[in-house]
Every structure is written in C-alpha cells, then in structure tokens.
Amino acid sequence: MKNLVIAAAMSAICLTGTAIAEPVKLKMGSSFPSSQPLLGTSGVDFAKTVTAITGGDVQVKFYEPGALVPAFEILDAVGSGTIDAGWANPGYHTKNDIAFALFSAVPFGPRASEYAAWMFYGGGSEMLNEKLYSKFNVHSEICGVSPPETAGWFRKEINNLDELKGMKMRFFGLGARVMQKLGVDTQLLPGGDIYPALERGTIDATEYSMPAVDENAGFYQLAKYNYFPGWHQQSTLQDFIINLDIWNGMSDGQRLAIRTACRASFTNMLAEGEAINGAALTRLQNDHGVNIRQWSDEQLAVFEENWAVVAEELQKESATFAEAWSALQEFRSEYNVWKSNAYLK
C-alpha cells in the first residue's frame, strides 16, 4: 500500500511538471478602501478569485488601508516581509524611485490598450520587475487598469492657467511635476484623506480618479467645477505585489493562478470602468450641480510643453527612468505605425 501511495504521488508530480507546494496564505494590504468603486472593489474581487480558482491552495485576504500598514507604505512593508502582499499602484512608490511612475500613468501617454501591449508584450512588466521591484525584494503582476481620469476639481472656474499659481492641490504622479511648473503647490494624499483636506482648506483643489470614484468620494459637495480631459492619466495601472521570497517559493501552478487572475482583473477593471462613468458623469451634472469644463487646446498645449521639460529633467534624475522612458518611446513609435493606420482619427 505504501508503495502505491508513493507511486501515485510521483505520477501527480510528473503530470503537473512541478512539485506539489504547500498552500499559501497571503495577507494583502491595500492602498484603496474596499468601499471605493473599481480601485478598491477590484482588490476584494481579486482576492476572492485567487482563493476560489485555486480551491484554497492560494488564499488571499484583503486588508483595508491602514489596517496593516499605511496606504503609501505598501512597497517597503511587502519587501521586508511585514506583510505578504499588496494591492497598490506603482506610482505610489516614487519616493523609492521616480521611475516607478512610468509604470503607473504617463502624461499624454498611452491609453489602456497601448499600455497593456507594452506591459504584457513589449517588455514593460519585465523591466518593472528587473529594474525596480527586485531591488526591494518584491515581485509585481500588473493586475488592473483605470480609464481616463478627470483633470481636477476646483471651487471656481479656471479662466486661464495663471489662476493656478499659488493653488494648493492634491495631485498624483508625473502630472504633479507638470503642475509644479505652473506654480501649483502639489501634495499627494491617500484617497481617504482628500475630502477632509478639501473641507478644512488644507488644499484648494484636487484630482483623484474617474467620475464614478470621485462621485463616491463626494468631492462635488465642496468643488463644483470638474475639468477634462485627464491629460495626466489617460489610463492608470494597478498591480498586485508580493514578497519575492514568497513568490519564488510558490509552485508554477500557484504563480500561474495569480497571473491569470490578474489578467482577468485587468480586463474586468477596464470594462467596468468604461461602463460606469457615463452614468456617473450624468449624475454629477444633473443631480449634484457640477459644472463640467474642458481645457482648451491652447491650455493642453501648455501642459504638454511643460511635460516635455519635466521628462527631460527626470531622465537626468534617475538612470532607470531614462532607460524606461527610452524603451516606452521606442515601443510607442512602433505602435503608432499600427495605430495611425488602423484606428479612426
């Protein structure tokens, strides 16, 4: 009987092509609350999906921001093993290296489909892990994407960009560096801290996410002018990060389950984000009295000119940024041959 058991186990190993690993239990800290549409709810769904499709072989438990570690401390906590994994955004790790921002959202940069092409098939994900995350003992799987964001919530109408000078504004990522060029005092705040800061007057204006998320946050109660398009974030990536030692200790099947769940999460976030924002924008205008405004072509040109200056500066600040920027530009140039011929203008 003992020999039969051993033979059956060996057969299972041969069929799967890998040794059977122990079940893995992951405590996943989040930068986004579970109540937040798309950004947070997708993290909850991802955790449930991985646990379900593996039959409990990989068990992921979602933790609210601050329950284990603060929203912006996910990377260091995962790398040190304080927590096992995180649901975040590469752009929240720029204090470690500004190059992380290129794998999050790029001003006047790629839309979701082009970003996915670079990350999944153009070497972007490999570069993100090899050049950045591996330095912090972390592995990343791109696990979600958000559609275009709004360009900001203001208490009053902005008639010209000079009115931005001296304004205190919550702003994210590389776009914040552009706004600083225009005289804006930018701050990066976690989602849950924005409304109180706006209410107290700690900040004068804010950007955060897409209409459905911003409506849920209640910004319309304090600022009635919402500007578009979101030139700074035409699409925004989210990722699942995991301690590298844990990742390397998992079986091929366990890692594949996580990667597959992330690809599904990416698709679901894109589809849901595109589905919910039309209704949200309609409610903001009709039910909440929000004034929707568009930056003019001339104003967008000013933002873009300043972004070009910032991009040059950042290449000198970070060698990794320079390398990643060059790789992204090369990919976008090749992609544009397809885009300019295949898509309607």
Can you walk me through this structure?
The N terminus is likely disordered. By secondary structure, the protein is α/β, with parallel strands linked by helices. The chain has 12 helices and 11 strands. The protein is globular. It is 48% helix and 15% strand.
Question: What attributes does this structure have?
Answer:
345 residues, alpha/beta, five-stranded mixed β-sheet, three-stranded mixed β-sheet, 12 helices, globular, disordered N terminus
Main sheet record: 5 strands, mixed
- Low-confidence segments: 1-19
- Ends: how far apart? 70 Å
> Could you give the order of strands across the largest sheet?
2-1-3-10-4
Care to give the gist of this entry?
The chain has helices at 2-16, 41-53, 74-80, 112-121, 124-132, 173-181, 191-200, 211-217, 244-249, 252-286, 297-317, 319-342, and strands spanning 24-30, 58-63, 85-88, 138-146, 152-154, 168-170, 185-187, 205-206, 225-228, 236-243, 291-294.
What is the topology?
Layout (H helix, E strand, L loop, with lengths): L1 H15 L7 E7 L10 H13 L4 E6 L10 H7 L4 E4 L23 H10 L2 H9 L5 E9 L5 E3 L13 E3 L2 H9 L3 E3 L3 H10 L4 E2 L4 H7 L7 E4 L7 E8 H6 L2 H35 L4 E4 L2 H21 L1 H24 L3
Parallel strand pairs: 1-2, 1-3, 6-7, 6-8, 9-11
Antiparallel strand pairs: 3-10, 4-10, 5-9
Helix pairs in contact: 2-10, 5-12, 6-11, 11-12
